[in-house]
Design brief:
The chain is mostly beta strands. It is built from 1 helix and 5 strands. Helices cover 9% and strands 46% of the residues. Strands 1, 2, 3, 4 and 5 form a 5-stranded antiparallel beta sheet that branches. The radius of gyration is 24 Å and the shape is elongated.
Length: 127
């Protein structure tokens, strides 16, 4: 039996510069810079044991927790752009009986970008 010759198909996407649609995600992002995170939580744990899997156990932190993160990215350190990010979060896990629990979380983030980095990127792309 003879098979047909295989061909390699090469797809090349044009390089996009300028604004991207809001629903588009970046292919890659280099985030290089210092980050500070502060977290507080209650140190109470709930131990779960699954008898169907020969007693494999897991510990889940229950109660309330909160965290705050501040990070700064700098092109001089290898990041794609100069920016600062800040985020806060809150989570809660409440036990309901011996084998059930309810979990919830909420967060908020803020990103500040440098216009100088955007102008520099526009010059590189020829816009």
């Amino acid at each position: 039996m003879r098979s047909a010759p295989s061909r390699a198909i090469r797809l090349s996407l044009p390089r996009r510069c300028g604004p991207t649609p809001r629903h588009a995600s970046p292919v890659a992002e280099r985030r290089v810079g210092p980050t500070i995170t502060y977290s507080i939580f209650q140190s109470r744990y709930l131990r779960l044991v699954e008898l169907d899997t020969y007693g494999v156990g897991e510990e889940v932190r229950r109660g309330q927790g909160a965290s705050a993160t501040i990070s700064y990215m700098e092109p001089g350190l290898g990041a794609d752009e100069r920016r600062a990010d800040a985020s806060v979060g809150y989570d809660v896990l409440v036990a309901m009986g011996d084998d059930a629990f309810i979990s919830g979380a909420a967060g908020l983030g803020l990103r500040l970008r440098s216009e100088a980095t955007d102008r520099c990127r526009a010059r590189r792309c020829g816009s």
